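As the work plan foresaw, our protein records have gained a structure token line. A representative record is set out beneath this paragraph:
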Amino acid sequence: MTSRRDRLKKLVKVQEQLKALHETRHAGFLSAAAAAESEAQDLIGHFDAGSSLAGLFPELYHRRIANALDRQKQSLESARLEAALVATATARTNMVERAYKDVRRRDERERSDRERLDLIAQKREQE
């Protein structure tokens, strides 16, 4: 059977991986939002240019601009939700790390106490 210390050590590793996953997803959503905003700005720039096809297909440009802005809004909302998950994962990771450190200190203290008791017992046997 594995010790509590080993289980907590594994749990810390899993929590750190989960936190990294949420951080990566958050960054991906922010990147997608920036790309959508850039696409909308480019489309607006082409729409305003006199030599573009926007005059022939204004509905198409308006729809694509609206879609890009919708994607940006959705990505920013997803990033906000993911940021909350990052905060939760960080709190859980910190809590598990504290528990792991406490258990590790307790194990080390118990080990040193046993070593001292063994030394005392050896000295009494020698006397």
